[in-house]
Amino acid sequence: MRRFSCAAVLLLATAAHAQVTDTGTYLQRMDADGDGKVSVEEYVQWMMYAFDRMDRNGDGVLSADELPGGKGKPITREQQRQTIIERFHKQDANGDGVLSAKELSAPPR
After folding, report:
1. What count of other Cβ atoms lies within 10 Å of the Cβ of residue 28?
2. Distance between CA atoms of 52 and 10, rounded to whole angstroms?
3. CB 38, CB 84: distance < 8 Å
4. For residue 103, which of 32, 35, 96, 99 is within the disulfide window of CB 3.0 to 4.6 Å?
């Protein structure tokens, strides 16, 4: 089992615009094309929101002073993107390349 960095977990947990009260609403907000499923592209776009908000100087790297708690190893936008893609594929339980409401609501695998 791969362990994610503290910064990666915090980035995913702090996606402020992702705060919803039920899975159906969560799916609707992530599902940019309205097809009832969340593609990897839609998932990445949604989850990168926190990174972009935290990257105050816009250089594509979260330095220690931009990370929660003001410390930690720097993480690039591409590193975070890859972490999110890995999480997507772990959540895609049936391997069909999209996340259903059931897969979105399941605990992380």
Report:
1. 14
2. 13
3. no
4. 99
